[in-house]
Amino acid sequence: MKYFCVIGEPIEHSLSPVMHNAVFKKHKLECKYLAFRVKKEELENAVRGLKALGFKGFNVTIPHKEKIIEYIDELSKEARLIKAVNTVKIDKKLIGYNTDGIGAVKSLKSLGEVKDKKIIILGAGGAARAIAFSLALEKTREIIIANRTLEKAKKLAKEVEEKTGVKTHACSIDKKVLKEKIKESEILINCTSVGMYPDINSTLVEKDMLKSDLVVMDIVYNPLETRLLKEAKKAGAKIINGVEMLVYQGAEALKIWGVEPDIELMRQAVLKELKQ
Ligand code: ATR
């Protein structure tokens, strides 16, 4: 039996076990995926333990994605740029990857190209960082990072541009500014928690900022259709909900562990769990 798991705190609501075990079961693989709550001060011990127990790989979630780097032997290009790891492969050595951003890129690619596109990202936290770097590695034309705290957006934009060469600017989330910036963009991604349950009526984007030739993605998956996505749909835009990024980041993790993913099965497993 091959063992995999996710470590984090809190971990109770992680959708990863259901998503991965669905693949293992359907395809009759001798694999099992578990979830462990690991406190910050126990991270190093937990990692040593997983290695000693012969786990083949694991996912890392809040609050360990950055700290874990100290215990990893080798980092992928994305993980090095993003400075965070969400997937580890154990193969004598520990190899750290970040599949969050590539998960978002793959979701977007299911609707069309990202190369040469102008993209506006709302937020400058961990999720925005992973997505901005992964998009830049795909040679997008331009990235705009809009954030409530402008300084954070500026810092991230500067780093993305310096390290990838992709033109990246920062702006505030002031309505007038956002309207102008969205008008120039082809893809809009909400990487903030705005719109998440229980504040389901919040959005950073006014209806009149949306247009039909926009792809709108929200990383929030509770609710599945956020106010932003509902309004984008009404405006005739193409929408992608937060489950897609979750499923695609999981699919990339499976590939890293040598398991063939099954996107539709994973999506259905996650949707079923969310409905319960
Ligand atoms: P994550 O790792 O999930 O990205 P995070 O690092 O806490 O989470 O980042 C949350 C993002 O949502 C930040 O960009 C935050 O803006 P600030 O940098 O100004 O804090 C943004 N955010 C959260 N609540 C918000 C709100 N009510 N209005 C606008 N932006 C908000």
Counting helices, strands and paired strands, the structural category is: alpha/beta
**Tally of helical runs:** 10
Q: How large, in whole angstroms, is the Cα Rg?
A: 18 Å
| Range of helix content | 25-40%
Globally, the shape reads: globular
- SSE succession: EHEHEEHEEHEHEHEHEEHEHH
Hetero ligands: 2'-monophosphoadenosine-5'-diphosphate
* Oligomeric status: single chain
Largest pleated sheet:
6 strands, mixed
Low-confidence stretches: none
Quick take:
With 276 residues, this protein is of the alpha/beta class. The chain is 40% helix and 20% strand. The strands form two sheets. The chain has a six-stranded mixed sheet with strand order 2-1-3-5-6-4. It has a six-stranded parallel sheet with strand order 9-8-7-10-11-12, with helices on both faces.
How would you sum up this structure, described in words?
It is a single chain. By secondary structure, this protein is of the alpha/beta class. It is built from ten helices and twelve strands. The strands form two sheets. A six-stranded mixed beta sheet has the order 2-1-3-5-6-4. A six-stranded parallel beta sheet has the order 9-8-7-10-11-12, with helices on both faces. Helix 5 runs parallel beside helix 6. The protein is globular and about 55 Å long. The two termini are 29 Å apart. The model has no long low-confidence stretch (mean pLDDT 97). Bound molecules: 2'-monophosphoadenosine-5'-diphosphate. The site of 2'-monophosphoadenosine-5'-diphosphate has 16 residues, from helix 5.
